[in-house]
Write a structure and sequence with these properties.
With about 400 residues, the chain is α/β, with parallel strands linked by helices. It has a single domain, classed as FAD/NAD(P)-binding domain (3-Layer(bba) Sandwich), CATH 3.50.50. Helix content is about 35%, strand content about 30%. The two termini are about 25 Å apart.
Length: about 400
């Protein structure tokens, strides 16, 4: 790209590449900074994507084919003492609640699309542009260099992730248990959240595990043999899918609630260049609601919408323009952060009084009709605006 780009995107993950492709479709000249990825083991990540994210990726022709994408028809949530909550898409006239997507396949589809888009130049180092969008993830180096504060509240939980093969088919049902686990050095059991997400397409027997546990329990779970780990997991989920076998090695990472103090600003030393944050560089949530990537892609959709709707005379670095994006997204992300953080803290409280309150609330919500339908539609992204 001989001329200066209109926008430089730092970070070539799912959020950064999606943004680059949407902007390129608007005839915006983009440079995409793709840093060399450090070597790592097998990628066991699987994301839950809602209908707004699905529409966006289908529009870009980057939606994976089955079995790399698995529709979720129902979600079942189990409390710690008989509480049970079921979300289904049928009552809303929809075929699916959401989709579980294999991350490496989606990343490959986006990378291939970027290669064939002449409006995008992939580079190894940042270049000057009227607008720089930072999509580097929660450990963003650029955000730190710009002096943007990133307030982090560390949860007393780590996520243990893996892939497993089950004796029984998952039936397109995502399952989640709020439960308790014994931790070395603690007299009382500690709160845990165990999620099994369906993989390998309709009728599949594969699931992705995300098991949020106390950090002191991690060495035990990671040190177990594959057979013993699968056995302990099968017991923890009450043999919901029969015996399990580990099909990909385990990974672990700390969980946190975090948000940037501001999402936009001027680049240092100039009034003609600005920056905006998007995705995990701007926010990080507990994974219990499965909304992390959906929120990042909603950032992308809103930024593109703001750029599409801008007055012809207003430059891309204009602070009033970027404030429209910041205002629109901060409120939505803050609302989801309150929900996920509140649920995590509610289910982490020990004692029979809290246990009774939780399960009374789950049963009441399950019978609430319109409220439950509204929450389900919101989680599905059915009413979300999307970039055209």
């Amino acid at each position: 790209m001989a001329n200066q780009p209109d926008i430089c995107i730092r970070g070539a993950g799912i959020v950064g590449r999606t943004l680059a492709l949407l902007l390129a479709r608007e005839r915006v000249r983009v440079t995409l900074v793709e840093s060399p990825a450090p070597p790592r083991g097998p990628d066991v990540r699987a994301y839950s994507l809602n209908s707004a994210a699905q529409r966006m990726l289908q529009d870009l022709r980057c939606w994976p084919d089955s079995p790399a994408v698995t529709p979720v028809h129902q979600m079942r949530v189990f409390g710690d003492h008989g509480g049970d909550l079921t979300f289904g898409a049928q009552g809303l006239g929809a075929g699916e609640l959401n989709w579980i997507v294999d991350v490496p396949v989606l990343e490959a589809r986006l990378a291939a699309a970027v290669q064939f888009q002449p409006q995008i130049e992939v580079v190894q180092a940042p270049v000057a542009a009227p607008l720089t969008v930072i999509c580097e993830g929660r450990a963003s180096q650029t955000r730190a260099e710009l002096g943007v504060a990133f307030a982090i509240t560390a949860y007393e939980q780590h996520a243990v992730a893996a892939r497993l093969r089950c004796e029984e088919p998952h039936g397109g049902v995502a399952r989640q248990w709020f439960t308790w686990g014994q931790v070395p050095g603690h007299a009382q059991a500690q709160a845990e959240i165990l999620a099994l997400l369906p993989l390998d397409g309709e009728g599949g027997h594969e699931v992705a595990l995300v098991w949020s546990v106390h950090p002191l329990r991690v060495p035990h779970l990671m040190g177990l043999s594959a057979e013993d780990f699968a056995s302990e997991l099968s017991q923890a989920c009450h043999m919901a899918l029969g015996p399990m076998t580990l099909s990909a090695e385990r990974a672990v990472w700390p969980l946190q609630l975090a948000h940037a103090s501001r999402w936009i600003g001027e680049m240092p030393g100039t009034t003609k260049q600005a920056f905006a944050l998007a995705g995990d560089a701007a926010h990080s949530l507990h994974p219990l609601a499965g909304q992390g990537l959906n929120i990042g892609l909603a950032d992308v959709a809103e930024l593109v919408r703001v750029i599409q709707a801008k007055e012809f005379w207003r430059p891309l670095h204009d602070s009033k323009l970027l404030r429209r994006y910041e205002r629109a997204r901060q409120a939505d992300v803050q609302a989801m952060a309150y929900v996920t953080d509140g649920l995590q803290r509610l289910f982490a409280r020990p004692g029979p009084a809290w246990q009774n309150l939780r399960n009374w609330g789950m049963r009441g919500f399950d019978r609430s009709g319109p409220l439950k339908n509204w929450m389900t539609r919101h989680a599905m992204g059915a009413d979300a605006p999307h970039a055209h």
